[in-house]
Amino acid sequence: MLHKPRFNWQKTINWVITLCITLMVIGYTLPAKADVIYQAFNMPFQEIKNQLSTLKADGFTYIQVSPPEKSNPSTEWWARYQPIDFTVFESPLGNEDDLRQLIDAAHEQDIKILVDVIINHMANYPPYSETLDYPRFSPEDFHPKSCIDYNNCYEVTHGWLGFGCDLPDLKTESDYVQGELKNYFASLIALGADGFRIDAIKHVEVADIDKILDVVPADKYVYGEVIGGNCGETTNYPQIHNVDITDYNLLSNLKGAFSFGGDLRSLINPQGVLPGYQAITFSKTHDTVCPGGDLCGDYGFEPRDQMLANAFLLARQDGLPLIYRDDIDDPIVPAGAKFHEKLLHESQYFRNGNEITSGGDSPNRLFIERGDQGIAIINKAGESFAPTSVRMPGLEEGCYQELISNSTMCVNADKSVQGGLNVAGRSAVFFVKQ
Fold it and tell me: What pTM did the predictor assign?
């Protein structure tokens, strides 16, 4: 009797590990785990639900909602980041039914929902913050009150956040606290959540995060917020449960390149950034917006430069782009999101401008090819980039649709472009093969 050979799982696992190591050695960039995230920051769930068809048409595949648990009752956005009770979904953004209806409606549109979660601390809201008696938590469930010296790694994960060190810090190493947080994740998963943003992840020990996330299935997407870091935060957390990290170093590169006098070509190999396959990339989040909606602090830059930075993030393959809610009104964003979605699995190549046209190389221009199926061009200069003699050496012969203007660019067999090219000043174009 002939016997069917048994499948050797160990050999297969060893082969996969070897392949992954080989790809990292040769510098291969793994694709992002998702397309584009829309940060529906501090938006009521019903309002988001009403925008689903528009967001779908604009190319967004993930929507990130603000924390849904019972929190500080203030209507200010920061109050959503001050939990009171993880067992109750009730806030100015909506209740449990509102969140469930949003998730169900999003799934009908093939859109996934990421939930912003806070697991590091509780609300600075009396009487809870005075007695440390919260629903499900008692004084023994918190670290002793202390301010944080950010050069002291122990204090980073055991101190209290807040301007007055006034946000009670949960003792996340406690089995009981971990159990309550696991229950919170499980409740959100039961509602249909597709993944999570973990707020202030750098303030929770890696070992604690590892245990808490045991309840999160492998098919759920998870990323953590890390701003700065002297304690290995950008490298330690990705080693557990494939947690991705916010790339604030890339944001600093964007600010330098797009600001007056900056060189866009520096973004071809930006310095100190995370590997693209584990990076959440952005030009704006709620943490970089001052009251009144202005960009501020170390990460703020001129609004039009910030929008052109969005064009860069959406044009390239590296990273998972996150777009702040207010930015979708600019035509660059929906066009860039569609470009990113259509060419997600195409490799990226930064083409020297002199190969496009004589004198095309400039600190104010960037040419990003995606395989041979598309190209994005960013023009930071105030004047138009409008050469009449143009070649597209990396693109396949044929015609390409520009996703903002719906105009057409046709590439001949000799790679010449019929009619030249025109990119308005302070703008970008996204061409995709028709």
Answer: 0.90
How far is it, in rounded angstroms, from Cα 206 to Cα 134?
Answer: 25
391: number of Cβ within 10 Å: 18
Per-residue pLDDT, averaged over 240-267, amounts to 95
Distance CA 315, CA 376 (A): 6
Q: What angle do CA 234, 262, 31 make, to 5 degrees?
A: 40
Nearest to 57 by CA among 393, 401, 341: 341
Question: 188 near 117, Cβ under 8 Å?
Answer: yes
Helix (H) or strand (E) holding 400: strand 398-402
Structural domains of the chain, with CATH:
30-342 (3.20.20.80), 348-433 (2.60.40.1180)
**7-65 confidence digits (pLDDT tens):** 344 443 444 444 444 333 333 344 445 689 999 999 999 999 999 999 999 999 999 99
Choice between 241 and 324, residue whose per-residue pLDDT is larger: 324
Distances in Å between the Cα of 103 and the Cα atoms of 11, 196, 389 are 40, 13, 50
